[in-house]
Amino acid sequence: MKIAVIGQSLFGQEVYCRLREEGHEVVGVFTVPDKDGKADPLGLQAEQDGVPVFKFPRWRAKGRALPDVVAQYQALGAELNVLPFCSQFIPMEVISAPRHGSIIYHPSLLPRHRGASAINWTLIHGDKKGGFTIFWADDGLDTGDLLLQKECEVLPDDTVSSLYNRFLFPEGVKGMVQAVKLIAEGKAPRLPQPEEGATYEGIQRKETARIDWDQPAEAIHNWIRGNDKVPGAWTEACGQKLTFFNSTLSTAGLEPEGEDLPIPGAHRPGVITKAGLILFGNDSRMLLVKNIQLEDGKMIPAAHFFGRAESSALELTEEELGTAEAVRGAWKRILPSVPEVDESTDFFKSGAASVDVVRLVEEVKELCDGLELENEDVYMATTFGDFIQLLVRRLRGGDKETECAIDYVEKAVNKLTLRMPHQLFIGGTFVDAEGGKTYETINPTDGSALCQVSLAQVSDVDKAVAAAKDAFENGLWGKISARDRGRLLYRAPPSPSTRRDPTGT
């Protein structure tokens, strides 16, 4: 089938590539103009394949289609228009031109969440089911007949990024290819959209993303995750605008113990803890925010909001300096309008967008032996110097700046001094049991007491389970491959659990 692909983004690029793999002829690609010297991934891929690419800044003027634009489109003889993701308004003269019409991808289960920011609103409304729709384009706003729908469960801590990456992107690409196949085989349905249950919400913008504190914790959590990462849910506190990211309702075992963060309009002050920022709804339930973006754009762990000593800069080895230069080259490729990438170059202030974050993470993976960064890491270290420091810490096996504090009990045995931890290990930290409860651990060889060991209480078990659940679901360890986990374990230094008594006794 002769297809015109109209749209943009990595999603559009992937749909385009899959359609070509299925044997369809893409007669033309219509995408957005270059921005800051950067071509959209869809247009860039099509140009590399020798497919005609058109970058019209607009298709209409004063409400009417531009005749020369329509003529260039019609000259291609497309039998079907495929719009995987399109931010431009396409006139009906183009939509209706092919004999098979036009199909559009929409990231919600229509008729729910018509309009832009559909993924955001799926989360903001706390929907338990999400998904996407492929529908036949008409002259309405996401009101055309349904061709195909697929749904998924929305997890309690899903964000726009996690829902998109887990389901809407990969399954959406497959869905678009399946829809084209159904059309080619003459089996594509046209099911009128029901009006019952229809909703329409506008584009989420920064000025409309302010947090309303007079609502339950779950609603506040949904608002924060529904605006994560764009545009970002924010509030005024400590004399500046703070934007919150990475929210969770998984707070079992957490205690609101730390430094208060007064928030105007909030039910009660937030609390900066070791786990992050604890917030409260008007139902007194808690939610936890793990990252805060300051007004100057810098993203920090919420636990560090009330200041922390400047981290000491790592001194790079020759090999690491070589890696830094390779990564600098990646920054230059992604930021072509920047004449020189130096330590202070800011990734986002230099014109990078969310699609560039994905590209940078992929380039780092190729350059650094499969190292898996999170998109969030780029937001946490936006300047080139900070990014290299973060990257090197990860390459060295972690980003901890100090070793975990361990209170050892020492015992001399057979000319060795054994050093034994005696506290509970919860959430990456050794801590005493609630109330300081302990019990004696016995040497089985002679029945003597070795030392007092912390005796976990029910509340300690709850904290440990909550910390383990969070690490399993959100931690980096479970997301990287077995090969990379093995590589990091191999590089880890042995624990100094024993040392020779210098006296020889």
Number of E-state strands: 23
Ranges with pLDDT <50 over ≥5 residues?
495-505
- Shape, principal axes of CA atoms: elongated
Percent in helix: 25-40%
The SS-based structural class is alpha+beta
- Return Rg in Å: 28 Å
* End-to-end C-alpha gap: 86 Å
Strand order of the largest sheet: 3-2-1-6-7-8-9
Main β-sheet description = 7 strands, mixed
SS strand fraction? 15-25%
The number of helical runs is 14
Mean pLDDT: 88
In brief, what are we looking at here?
This is formyltetrahydrofolate dehydrogenase. The chain is 30% helix and 22% strand.
Describe the structure.
- The protein is α+β, with helices and mostly antiparallel strands.
- 30% of the residues lie in helices and 22% in strands.
- It has 14 helices and 23 strands.
- A hairpin with a 2-residue loop joins β17 (408-413) and β18.
- It is elongated.
- Residues 495-505 have low confidence and may be disordered.
Present the secondary structure layout.
Elements: E1 2-6, H1 9-21, E2 25-30, H2 41-48, E3 53-54, E4 60-61, E5 64-65, H3 67-74, E6 80-83, H4 92-95, E7 102-106, H5 118-124, E8 129-136, E9 146-153, H6 160-168, H7 170-184, H8 217-226, E10 233-237, E11 240-248, E12 259-261, E13 270-273, E14 276-280, E15 286-293, E16 299-301, H9 318-334, H10 354-367, H11 375-380, H12 384-395, E17 408-413, E18 416-421, E19 424-426, E20 429-431, E21 438-442, E22 449-454, H13 458-474, H14 482-491, E23 498-500
Parallel strand pairs: 1-2, 1-6, 2-3, 6-7
Antiparallel strand pairs: 4-5, 7-8, 8-9, 10-11, 11-15, 12-13, 13-14, 14-15, 15-16, 17-18, 18-23, 19-20, 21-22
Helix pairs in contact: 1-2, 1-7, 5-8, 6-7, 9-10
